[in-house]
C-alpha cells in the first residue's frame, strides 16, 4: 500500500524532472534554479499569501523547548531529565496561557531564551503543534514494535539526520528530488507573473522547495546571486568580461547550446530584476544583528515587500539554522539557538505587520526529529516526534494543537507509555502530512490536490488524525 503510493509519487517526479534536466543540458549551475516552467495553476490567486519554512537542522530538543510546568508533569520531567532539566524558577516568566486551558490542569512554559516567542503565543499570534513527526500510517506503540510492516510501515531510516531531514521535507529519504513545498509551488506557478520567484531559498539548496515543475530560486542574505564571470571583471579585463557575457547569452543554432544560452540569459535577467525590486523597497523593522536566521528572514521580508515588482501572488520560502544536534553541551548551547529562532521569528512577524501582510504570511518550524526525554549525561539523543511553532496573523494562536504527550519513559501497557518508543522518543500523534496539509489548505490548495502533494495523506483523515489540524483561520 505505502510503497505503491510512494513509487507512484516518485516515478511521476522522476519523469517530470528528467524531462526538465534533459532540456536544461549541462548548463551553468544556476540554470537548475531558474528553469521553472509553469503548467496550469490549481487556483487563480487574487490576493497574496506566503509560507515560510524555518528548518532547525540537527534535531531540536523538544523537552527543553516546550517544557511541562504544572507540578505533576514538571516533577516527572525533572526526575527523568535529571541534570539537563531546566529549573522551574527559570520558567516562571515563560508560562504559556492558552485561551482554552489544557485538560487535567496541564501547563507548559517556553525555554527562558524564548521570551519573544512566548509573547507571540500569549498575544494570539502563534500556536504550538504538539508531537508532530513523520508517519506513513497512524501507529500505536504495539504496532511500531511488531513485525507487520505491510500494514504498519515505518518512515524510512528513522533517527538518521540526513534521511529524516529529507522525509520531513519530501516524504522520502535522502536522495529525494521533490518536496512538498515545491509541489505547493507547482500549483501556483502560472498564477504568478514570474514563475521563477515562486519558490525561494535563502539557505542554499533544500529538497523542500523542489517541485515537479517548480525549481527553487536561491538568494543570499545580501540579495540575488549573479554569475561572477558576467558581473565582475575577468582576468583583470573588462573586454573578457563583455565577451563572456555575449558568448554565454547569444542565440545558437544547436538546440542544447541554445538552451544553455537562453537559461543563462534568464539567470542574468532574473538577477537584475530581483536587485532592482529590492532596491525599490525598505523594511524598517529591526532584526537582531549577528543572528544568521534573522538575516535570512529579513531577506524574506524584503522579497515579500518587493512582491509587486516581482509579479508574485503566491510564494514559498525556506530558511534554516543549524547546530541542534546536542548530544553534548545541551544546557550551555541550546539557549543561544532557541533565542535566535525566537527573536528572528518575532522580528519577521513584526515586519509582516509593517508591510500590511501579517494575515497573508505564515511561518512554521520543522526539524529532523525531536530528541530523547532521557539524559545521556550531557545532552539528549536522536528521537522522533517533536513540538513545533506556527506564527502569523492567520494562525489561530494562543492555543495548543494535537495531543500533549505523557512525560514517561516506561515500557508497560499503561496509557502514559504508549506515546513514546523508548527513552522518551515521542511516537508522533500527528503526522507531517497533516501538518503540511493544514498549511497547504490555507495557502489555497484544494482538497482533491492535497494527495498529489503529500503521498501519505490518504492514510489519515479519521477523527483522531484529521486532515485539517485547525490551527489556521
TrEMBL record:
<dbReference type="InterPro" id="IPR006311">
    <property type="entry name" value="TAT_signal"/>
</dbReference>
<dbReference type="Pfam" id="PF07394">
    <property type="entry name" value="DUF1501"/>
</dbReference>
<protein>
    <submittedName>
        <fullName>Uncharacterized protein (DUF1501 family)</fullName>
    </submittedName>
</protein>
<dbReference type="InterPro" id="IPR010869">
    <property type="entry name" value="DUF1501"/>
</dbReference>
Amino acid at each position: 500500500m505505502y510503497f505503491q503510493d510512494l513509487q507512484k509519487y516518485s516515478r511521476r517526479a522522476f519523469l517530470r524532472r528528467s524531462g526538465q534536466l534533459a532540456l536544461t543540458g549541462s548548463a551553468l549551475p544556476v540554470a537548475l534554479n531558474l528553469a521553472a516552467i509553469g503548467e496550469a495553476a490549481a487556483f487563480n490567486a487574487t490576493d497574496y499569501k506566503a509560507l515560510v519554512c524555518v528548518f532547525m537542522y540537527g534535531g531540536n530538543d523538544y523537552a527543553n523547548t516546550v517544557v511541562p510546568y504544572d507540578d505533576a508533569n514538571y516533577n516527572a520531567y525533572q526526575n527523568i531529565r535529571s541534570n539537563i532539566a531546566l529549573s522551574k524558577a527559570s520558567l516562571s516568566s515563560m508560562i504559556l496561557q492558552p485561551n482554552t486551558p489544557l485538560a487535567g490542569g496541564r501547563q507548559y512554559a517556553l525555554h527562558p531564551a524564548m521570551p519573544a516567542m512566548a509573547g507571540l503565543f500569549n498575544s494570539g499570534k502563534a500556536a504550538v503543534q504538539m508531537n508532530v513527526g513523520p508517519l506513513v500510517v497512524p501507529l500505536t506503540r504495539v504496532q511500531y514494535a511488531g513485525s507487520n510492516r505491510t500494514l504498519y510501515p515505518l518512515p524510512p531510516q528513522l533517527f538518521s539526520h540526513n534521511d529524516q531531514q529529507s522525509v520531513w521535507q519530501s516524504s522520502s529519504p535522502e536522495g529525494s528530488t521533490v518536496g512538498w513545498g515545491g509541489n505547493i509551488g507547482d500549483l501556483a506557478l502560472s498564477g504568478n507573473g514570474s514563475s521563477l520567484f515562486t519558490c525561494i531559498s535563502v539557505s542554499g539548496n533544500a529538497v523542500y522547495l523542489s517541485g515537479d515543475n517548480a525549481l527553487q530560486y536561491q538568494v543570499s542574505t545580501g540579495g540575488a546571486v549573479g554569475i561572477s564571470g558576467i558581473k565582475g571583471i575577468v582576468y583583470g579585463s573588462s573586454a573578457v568580461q563583455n565577451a563572456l557575457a555575449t558568448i554565454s547569452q547569444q542565440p545558437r543554432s544547436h538546440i542544447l547550446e541554445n538552451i544553455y544560452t537562453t537559461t543563462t540569459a534568464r539567470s542574468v535577467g532574473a538577477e537584475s530584476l530581483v536587485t532592482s525590486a529590492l532596491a525599490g523597497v525598505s523594511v524598517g523593522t529591526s532584526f537582531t544583528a549577528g543572528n544568521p536566521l534573522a538575516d535570512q528572514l529579513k531577506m524574506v521580508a524584503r522579497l515579500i515587500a518587493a512582491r509587486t515588482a516581482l509579479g508574485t501572488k503566491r510564494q514559498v520560502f525556506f530558511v534554516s539554522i543549524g547546530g541542534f544536534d546536542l548530544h553534548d553541551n545541551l544546557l550551555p548551547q541550546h539557549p543561544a539557538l532557541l533565542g535566535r529562532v525566537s527573536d528572528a521569528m518575532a522580528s519577521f512577524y513584526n515586519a509582516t505587520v509593517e508591510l500590511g501582510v501579517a494575515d497573508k504570511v505564515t511561518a512554521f518550524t520543522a526539524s529532523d526529529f525531536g530528541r530523547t526525554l532521557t539524559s545521556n549525561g550531557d545532552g539528549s539523543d536522536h528521537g522522533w516526534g517533536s513540538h513545533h511553532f506556527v506564527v502569523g496573523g492567520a494562525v489561530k494562536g494562543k492555543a495548543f494543537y494535537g495531543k500533549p504527550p505523557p512525560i514517561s519513559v516506561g515500557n508497560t501497557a499503561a496509557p502514559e507509555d504508549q506515546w513514546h518508543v523508548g527513552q522518551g522518543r515521542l511516537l508522533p500523534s500527528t503526522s507531517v502530512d497533516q501538518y503540511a496539509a493544514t498549511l497547504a489548505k490555507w495557502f489555497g490548495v484544494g482538497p482533491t490536490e492535497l494527495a498529489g502533494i503529500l503521498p501519505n495523506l490518504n492514510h489519515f483523515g479519521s477523527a483522531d488524525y484529521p486532515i485539517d489540524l485547525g490551527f489556521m483561520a
